[in-house]
Amino acid sequence: MTKLSTVIDRSKLKVRRDPYWSKIMSGCYLGYRKMTSTGSGTWTARYLDPDQQKQIRKPLGDYSDYPDNERYDLAQKDALAWFKHLGRGGSNESLTVKDICQRYVDHLKSEKTKKAAKDADQRFNRYVYNNTKLARTDITKLKPSQIDTWKKALRETLTTSGSNRGGQRSDSTLNRDITCLRSALNLAYKEGLVTSDFAWKGKLLPIKNAERKRDVYIDLEQRRKLIEFCPHDLAEFVKCSCLIPLRCGAIANLTTSNYDKKLKTLRVGKDKSGQDRRISLPQNIATFLEQHTKDKLPNAPIFARSNGDFWGKDAWKYPIKDAVIKAELPINTTMYTIRHSVITDLVHGGLDTLTVAQLSGTSVLMIEQHYGHLTKNHAKEALSRLAI
Predict the structure, then answer these.
(1) What distance in Å separates the CA atoms of residue 180 and residue 158, rounded to the nearest whole number?
(2) What digits encode the pLDDT tens for the residues 314-327?
(3) Exposed, middle or buried: residue 95 (CB in 10 Å: 0-12, 13-18, 19+)?
(4) What CATH code would you report for 220-384?
(5) What is the value of pTM for the model shown?
(6) Exposed (0-12), middle (13-18) or buried (19+): which is 356, by Cβ within 10 Å?
(7) Which residues belong to CATH 1.10.150 in the chain?
(8) Quick one: what percent of the chain has pLDDT higher than 70?
(9) Are 365 and 354 in contact (CB under 8 A)?
């Protein structure tokens, strides 16, 4: 074995292709490769897998950003962290944060939806990959301070879309952006690509109470007025939103095959949750859907645009704005306002939160957070009926 701990020790080494090795502990070695007489050498860790009796190596770099006299300690520290990672059963695959993010996108494509994968990929491209230092960091070397720095920079990044375009990021926006990175890192931890989540567990927690209560509500008469001023193809789409509290994207992706005429049920297959659910329909809504599925092919959209295409956010955005103005509704009324208003009516009408959550494809917690205040009167009335 060779002494590598001091600058003098390393300066005495002859130039050669193979590394000089120093034993750290049984089966674990730190190597130093000296390729030139004047340049910085590079460091490598070597580990003997006790199960397969196979040598595994990991390049550690040259640590040229640090003084010569600190490089051995830094290389040894990184080598020990890697040995510990392997000893816990961690993968010997060398992956960066960017690699982890890309693996997560592939996971979403196969396990969730292409839409979810595309959304995550776009967020990574905008907010992770542009941070070169973070993106290139080996997942096993990720530090809490890097996550802190990234999160602070993200907080200061102005929004690029929506009604708040160019403004300061809200807590809810920040939560949505950090969720993707947290999920990608958690998946890597679950799969054993890293054996500790210490670097991000306490740093990427969602901000509490970030979601503001929905305060734009349009009543039944206003909804009818909105439908009246919409183009015919959009009017039928909006009418469906008024009848069933589905997300706009879920309605846009409904095809004839999603509706079962015999059972009068609607299968919602493409939604935020990514899971199929079936909704039993009353006669009036069943009749409405039968009219829109009659004589259509199974893969045809139930609510198509005038040109036969599926609806999308960019297609309904401006027609809805025009209809809102003509109907003299609150200027910040959107397609989502309709869903919020329908959910409000269901909760206010006394329907239990579990059923409302199932109909709208969200969690009971979300319903309670945003609409729980509407149930207070129901509780009061229920208690009043207990009088003896």
Answers:
(1) 18
(2) 899 999 999 999 99
(3) middle
(4) 1.10.443.10
(5) 0.56
(6) buried
(7) 97-201
(8) 91
(9) no
